[in-house]
UDP-N-acetylglucosamine 1-carboxyvinyltransferase
Amino acid sequence: MGKILTIHGGVPLKGTVRVGGAKNLVPKAMVASLLGNTPSVLRNVPEIKDVSVVRSLLELHGVNVTQDPQTGDLTMDPTDAKSASNRAIDAHAGDSRIPILFCGPLIHSLGQAFIPDLGGCRIGDRPIDFHLDVLREFGAVVHKGEDGIRISAPQGLSGAKLDLPYPSVGTTEQVLLSAVRARGVTEVRNAAIEPEILDLIALLQKMGAIISVHRDRIIRIQGVDELQGYDHTALPDRNEAASWASAALVTKGDIFVEDAQQRDLTAFLHVYRQIGGEFEVKHNGIRFYHPGGELNPLILETDVHPGFMTDWQQPLVVALTQASGVSVIHETVYENRFGFTEALQRMGATVQVHVDCLGSTPCRFGHRNFKHSAVVMGPVDLRGTDVDIPDLRGGFSHLIAALAAEGTSTVTGIEIINRGYEHFTEKLISLGANVELHEAGVKVGS
Ligand code: EPU
């Protein structure tokens, strides 16, 4: 039975929240533990669904995973790794996109991998063609079946010279996790260089991997026969930080985001200030607040790092509904990341979505019928409504719109939010939000 969140809007969010370890690093760091021949320890692990999915998959493959009840630190011992039954792995089909990253490590330790149908957010087709292409370049043989994909490498994996069609985060991770123990040298051009990728590289380096990052998105890896376990503290979640920052602006609040790191949020902070939001960088986090007065509209394009990240777009669009004038947003990373604006319009926002590229950043979606540009007119008074959460970031943006709106909203599908925001209901309550969580007709918190 799903949970229902009732939100009585109009309350400025005020107080302190601490961001957890990055959702877009931690599950991949867990996969990397399979590459070592001794246990790995991962610290700053958030309590989110992707972590429990990957933990189950590691356990299915014989990795002994234990968690410190006080700190939440994970210890992963891969010394008895083994093949799991396809049926057991298949039970995780649709849960997460992380399983595709098991390919390289499983081939290195077991000679083969089975990957169930993949889940993840509904924000476009999210294909895995780049992943399969690079695995083939490493010498893997890919068999696509109805239940999933079987990958084997009878001769093992060999280093390759790769040029990615797009600086894809997941594909770059696939390359790293495969190349570190492949025979010989790998060079990947047009690689992603997001902070989460650099943190994964740092962790692999601790394991003994030989990796160098060069100018112009080039990464070189010299394969080694053996790696040891790591002891690593995950970088803080910059997407969660940006989400709370937007929540402060939208609700005219004042939120100190403990552990938010300026270094990984430069593009976001620049835009935040342009809109009229204020922030104060402290030694242990960043205070985000609405200084009063009008917010400014702007022209915004999402891009790969160091550009304005696609995951920051949806919460910020809600802030733009409160700006005085016309804002234009061009989404260049995903072809279908404006679906969430339909609910915002029901709440009173004025948003038009367009198939044209409303910006100059090179984009793969122009003239292809994808509604990937948006025009937002503000300011408007938002009003509460019924919302069914469509995806992680779109869902968070619905929550903050409901928190700012006049009246009551009823939100279903909030389990999706648990994929990326740990303890979010508790955090909302600690910030003074007037919310109630119901399960099967029972009120469990307010
Ligand atoms: N793409 C392909 N083929 C592929 C792989 C990617 O066409 O084989 C396309 C995608 O469809 C997309 C673009 O390349 O249009 C970029 O995708 P990328 O591979 O970079 O994304 P990802 O690795 O699947 C991660 C994050 C996303 C984040 C993106 C971009 C994780 C688990 N997910 O996805 O996070 O938006 O990078 O930075 O790390 C989120 O946190 O809400 C989220 C969706």
